[in-house]
TrEMBL record:
This is Nucleoside triphosphate/diphosphate phosphatase. Has nucleoside phosphatase activity towards nucleoside triphosphates and nucleoside diphosphates. Mg(2+) 2 binds at D105, D107, D120, E123. It catalyses: a ribonucleoside 5'-triphosphate + H2O = a ribonucleoside 5'-diphosphate + phosphate + H(+); a ribonucleoside 5'-diphosphate + H2O = a ribonucleoside 5'-phosphate + phosphate + H(+). InterPro entries: DUF402 (IPR007295), FomD-like_sf (IPR035930), Ntdp-like (IPR050212), SA1684 (IPR016882). It holds the Pfam family DUF402. Belongs to the Ntdp family. One of its GO terms (molecular function) is nucleoside diphosphate phosphatase activity. Keywords: Hydrolase, Magnesium, Metal-binding. Residues 19-156 form the DUF402 domain. The keyword Magnesium applies. The active site is at R23.
Length: 175
């Protein structure tokens, strides 16, 4: 995989298991890009839903994608602290068009005090039947929930104190 240069912008695309486009984030600035990890930043960008609806993000965010784990993490910078939204899905790929991953419905929302909540289990159950998720995918995702909870409690990776702030400062220099 060849990555765009630091400071360039990319589109982020999420897909569903049945290969349909789920959501597109118009513009994320690359702050770090390797075969193992991509860190990007954005602020009040347009997000396009698969049904054509569009909305604009409300705050600056630092995005963390990994090639080794079945999740990505968005650190949203708000007045009352950093909130994290963790999407469970495949490791990313990048193909010159966009950074891409398959979204598997389950999400974990992390609050500034590092408490968290598992979201969308009902959506996962419905899509698992509709799209025939393989049993192996469910096993990986359940293991990934445990892994993410461990990262959160250990304040590891994107949850490390100062991680989002550090990358946000870098983002501000590349806008």
């Amino acid at each position: 995989m060849k990555f765009p240069m630091v400071g360039s912008t990319i589109e982020v695309q999420s897909y569903k298991h049945n290969a349909t486009l789920h959501r597109v984030w118009e513009e994320t600035v690359i702050l770090k890009g390797t075969t193992q990890e991509v860190i990007g930043g954005n602020d009040r960008i347009i997000v396009q839903e698969s049904d054509g609806r569009q909305w604009r993000t409300r705050e600056p965010a630092i995005c963390y994608f990994t090639a080794n784990h079945w999740f990505n993490v968005i650190g949203m910078i708000r007045n009352d602290g950093i909130y994290y939204y963790c999407n469970l899905g495949t490791p990313f790929t990048y193909d010159q068009e966009a950074l891409k991953y398959i979204d598997y419905d389950l999400d974990i929302k992390v609050f500034p005090d590092m408490t968290y909540k598992l979201l969308d289990e009902d959506e996962f159950a419905v899509h698992k039947k509709q799209m025939n998720y393989p049993d192996e995918v469910e096993v990986i995702l359940r293991r990934t929930v445990d892994e993410l909870v461990s990262w959160i409690s250990q304040q590891k990776g994107p949850f490390e104190p100062g991680f989002v702030e550090y990358w946000y400062e870098r983002f501000l220099t590349h806008r």
